[in-house]
# Entry
Amino acid sequence: MGWGGGGGGMMVGGGPPGGRVGGLPFGGIPSELLEGVKRIEASEPSHAPSDLTFHQIPEGDEAEALTLTRLVTRYPRWLIESSLFVLIASVVVQAGPWLTGYAIDHSLRHAPYHFNILVWCVIGYAAIVLVGGAAQWAQTRTSGRLAAAVMHDLRIRVFAHLQRLSLNFFTEEKAGVLMSRMTSDIENLQQLIQDGIASFATQGLTMVTIVIIMEWQCWQLATITILAVIPALVILSIWFQHASDKGYDRIRDGIAGVLADLSESLHGARIVTANNRQRQNIVVHREVVAEYRNANIFTGNVNAIYGPATLAIGIIGQGLLLGIGGLMVAHGKLSPGVLVAFFLYLNRFFAPIQLLVQQYNSLQSGRASINKLRDLFATEPEVSQSPTAHELPTILGAISFNDVDFGYDSDNLVLRGINLEIHPGESVAFVGPTGAGKSTMAKLVTRFYDPTSGVVSIDGHDLKRVTFSSLRRQLGVVPQEPFLFAGTIRDNLVFARPTATDDEVADAVARVGLTDLVDRLTDGLDTIVHERGQSLSAGERQLLALARAFLAHPRVLVLDEATSNLDLQSETTIERALDAVLENRTAILIAHRLSTAKRADRIVVIDHGTIVEVGSHDELVATDGVYAAMYATWIRQGSAEGLSSEH
Ligand code: ADP
# Structure
């Protein structure tokens, strides 16, 4: 995209509300160009609003395995047209050398020379070249369209698939690797469909046509020539295929490695600088880049052998042709015109091989890419929606854990024997040392993961039996590091409920105490927040996330309290905001501060994956257990420091 900004299309006048496009240096389209732009716009296809529906379980085409054939046969008309043009381009033009031979034998060999035959041959040759050129133009255009359409479908399919996958997939898979699936792998396929397949077909057909014409003209000479060159060519090609396959696998892995490392460094730029890790990062990056370079060098070497070797075979073939063909001409068994035609054909036979090397590379990367994409599609969401899942009716918000065990991998239980009832409207704080399993318990309620054994249910409905959408519609999640999307503050607030009215948005902003901030900003709610909200403070991001949750009116709210040290005033504002958001809702608070835990109706103390104490603040202080000890330390320190550091 150019400077047009996030809208996706070209912007002529107007623009987004507020008239500014995120402060980008784009001053509009100069008036002298406007006419031209309008003309281009008029010729563009209009994109009607999408009526796309998202299915948690893939349906129709999306459920089928990914193959190149399936991809291209979805557009049969373009495929047939393209094949027809390939046929014309490769077969018709092969009449050229035959015409040359004919002209030599019939108009130039013996006086009187028949110039009219020569002229007709020249006209015929020109016509063939024109038809061939036109067919190639039409074919390139059609395969371009086909490739664009196929890639469009594929990109949407990959994206939809990623939306379905569970959280653990994104934890384990590097974002950079996924980006390379979406960019370079899809582009490889595009290249393959646009040029690769058609070129392969053209080259193959050309070679077959040439062999047939040569056999038809003089089968003895044709057979000798073909027997001399083809076996050597086949052996060489089989070697090339093996070596090249190996090289391309390495290249694909290499580029994915480079991108993964790059993306991690970019995302972690702040931490890298803060920890003086630049040098080590360069060392690591140098290693991944070196592997990519070595893979490229290997493939380059393979190509360097194959290209010249085929050329050598071609030259040997021509030598043979000259010797044997020459003898045949001398003995009157072959006309000079046919011999010339043979030379031209042999040249044309070998010319595509050089091209095939390049095309093979694109075929290889295309194939490697389709395999990688197929693997991606084969990844089943670990937490999947059962085909018989029912809609979760409007809930009151009673959450229960029954004998729940859970491990991120089955050998390593992180939660053991959890039994807990949370009543509708109750706020419960999970406290305990870092790594105790607090967030994990919350992730089971939002069904980011399924328990290894036992049942987590809401209002008596086992979470495994309800649809994701009906569950998550009624759940609000405020993560420790709230994620803000690039867009306006309003866009970020209405994220979970796009239908919210302006009044509702303003009310949510007021409830969490953000009105002052919004009033201070030049464009108010339409102020653009930068990606991930880096332009806002940690406290402001938390408040925005709370307002977002408030606006969605969830029955159950899961809130991971920010651990970052907020100043006292921000803390007080957030606590007040929390009171507003939690009113009448069932809430799970992963509390890192005792001041937050204290305000909850009940406190659940978790240690080493088990619940060790449950009760209200006063009850727990009175029982003189783990919580009481934590509280005593807190009081002694006289500050609201994070709980985790006390352990
Ligand atoms: P808490 O929220 O109490 O600090 P967590 O619930 O995040 O603790 O983590 C509990 C344990 O599970 C920790 O030992 C942590 O290392 C482990 N853990 C957390 N997330 C994952 C994950 N995605 N894969 C594997 N182990 C994890």
